[in-house]
């Protein structure tokens, strides 16, 4: 399969994930120095911090200010795992290895495509449900056995923005946090996760009569949201499908790791190979 086949599919799926990509960043803007959700002086966490400003209205446009997801992707020598189990039982995952200079090795695992989304007779089984990307200096390269020029032709010249958008999509975490009403977070003290010392928060908020629950782990030193677990009722995930039951289960997990410097595989003779140095 040549490089023009799989990556558009990946981008197509990503497009589905980011229909609402530019939702409010108000929750994440609250998790920054000077505006971290306050637990007041109550060490038990019984006072709930504020979360977002526009529940049920779709939020506001992003301010452009760096937030904890920007800062997460700015960390070095880490492995990020984003997984989503949808109410219909399908699963997707993205693993991002970031080395010490900021280059990435990304692995996608996607559910099989719904044949109803394609023209009649289209064989979706021939489209792979997994892929990998090498990201050097912000540009993403996808291996291809059929096209040796893949090493000199990036598939995405601004992959960091693409990845950020995925974290904000319906199968990510930020969109659901941004629609929660004030008081949906409760301090759960400090915890060590993935090599980070974090401030933990439980999540329990109601949107349109549906309870969104879970837990967050925020590392104040890097201003990054390093871990999250959310359960989103099917009625919120897809309000148009009344037969859908269960919940979307999203997990964002980050851990410190000794990630080898990311480089492209050995290039065939005569093929230019981009530098891995930012």
Structural features:
single chain, 10-stranded antiparallel beta sheet, 16% helix, alpha+beta, 278 residues, flat, 6 helices
Task: Please describe what this structure looks like.
This protein has 278 residues and is α+β, with helices and mostly antiparallel strands. It has one domain (3-113, 126-256). The protein is built from 6 helices and 10 strands, in the order H-H-H-E-E-E-E-E-H-H-E-E-E-E-H-E. It has helices spanning 3-17, 26-30, 68-73, 159-167, 174-178, 234-237; strands spanning 78-85, 91-98, 104-109, 130-136, 139-141, 185-193, 196-207, 210-219, 224-233, 247-256. It has a 10-stranded antiparallel beta sheet. It is flat, with a radius of gyration of 20 Å. It starts with a helix and ends in a 22-residue tail after the last strand. Mean pLDDT is 78; it is low at 1-30 and 32-63.
How do the strands and helices of this protein lay out in sequence?
Layout lengths: L2 H15 L8 H5 L37 H6 L4 E8 L5 E8 L5 E6 L20 E7 L2 E3 L17 H9 L6 H5 L6 E9 L2 E12 L2 E10 L4 E10 H4 L9 E10 L22
Antiparallel strand pairs: 1-2, 1-10, 2-3, 3-4, 4-5, 6-7, 7-8, 8-9, 9-10
